[in-house]
Design brief:
Layout (H helix, E strand, L loop, with lengths): L2 H4 L16 E4 L5 E4 L2 E2 L8 H10 L5 E2 H8 L10 H13 L8 E6 L2 E6 L2 E3 H17 L3 H14 L11 H27 L3 H14 L4 H13 L3 H19 L5 H11 L13
Parallel strand pairs: 1-7
Antiparallel strand pairs: 1-2, 2-3, 4-6, 5-6
Helix pairs in contact: 2-4, 5-6, 6-7, 7-8, 8-9, 9-10, 9-11, 10-11
Length: 279
């Protein structure tokens, strides 16, 4: 199957054979939910939106009510309050219009809840699926297919998971997705470096730094490429950006490898191998 057809997989992938999904949920960057093309934006109870987000991430999986209490009210030791019932009622009120056909079904069973969504497209699921397919293709040495899937992964990563929200479970999920995005971007950078396509490699470095401004291997690659181009001023500039961010934000200095790289480049020595990445 052509690579171009492999990556057609939903709203951001130029369509799919199954037609447009009834439910589109985006959790990368700001949370957005659409049903039949209409945005769902009115969340009446304080924790209703957070409850829906957690059940959406875990859709088709039963979640015990104790776990929901731990996630939504981590500061409380007792799980006997009515807060969860209030949040569930809020979710049901918001989604009641869409609980038939291709919409939502929120089930209660065995002291917990399960969210079902028929004909749904969820960006974080497609994001993980694209990366997993890229990694499988990479291991199988099908590099053209792998790069297409990693490109898809990078395209889907439009921002942090539920940007601006700070619940503990969100932070854990966010870190995992950042790591996945960085692995895909490293593979794309490696492929561009192997082709000596400096503009493309620099683009992927900058994308990696958008995800993680302390990603030292991206700074190293930028320094080395500018050294290859004879742009020593740019080499020094990227080193200084790296050093300032690491020192100011993390209280650490650049690694010994970065320091040796700077010395070698500024003295015009032969370039070491360009840093790459494997998914």
């Amino acid at each position: 199957m052509p690579v171009q057809e492999l990556v057609k997989s939903g709203p951001d992938g130029s369509g799919s054979d199954e037609g447009a999904p009834s439910v589109v949920a985006r959790c990368l960057s700001n949370f957005r939910l659409e049903v039949d093309g209409q945005a769902v934006s009115h969340w009446r109870a304080g924790k209703a939106r957070a409850l829906f987000q957690y059940l959406l991430v875990n859709r088709e999986r039963f979640v015990h009510r104790n776990r929901l209490h731990e996630v939504l009210w981590p500061e409380r030791e007792e799980h006997g309050s009515s807060s969860l019932k209030v949040a569930v009622h809020g979710v049901r009120r918001v989604l009641s219009t869409f609980e038939d056909g291709d919409g939502f079904t929120l089930l209660y069973q065995d002291h917990g809840y399960l969210l079902r969504t028929n004909n749904a497209w969820v960006d974080i699921e497609e994001f993980q699926r694209a990366f997993d397919r890229g990694r499988t293709a990479w291991v199988a040495k099908e590099h053209d297919t792998a790069i297409a899937w990693f490109q898809r992964t990078a395209d889907l990563y439009t921002g942090d998971f539920l940007a601006g929200e700070t619940d503990g479970w969100i932070n854990e999920q966010r870190q995992w997705m950042r790591g996945t995005a960085l692995r895909a971007l490293s593979a794309l950078r490696t492929e561009a470096l192997e082709r000596e396509d400096w503009p493309a490699a620099m683009h992927w470095c900058r994308r990696a730094l958008d995800v993680d401004p302390h990603h030292e291997s991206a700074y190293q690659a930028l320094m080395m490429m500018h050294g290859e181009l004879g742009e020593l001023g740019r080499v020094l500039s990227w080193y200084e950006v790296c050093r300032l961010r690491l020192r100011t934000d993390l209280g650490v200095e650049p690694s010994e490898r970065t320091e040796r790289l700077l010395t070698a480049l500024m003295r015009g020595r032969g370039l070491p191998s360009l840093p790459g990445g494997r998914p």
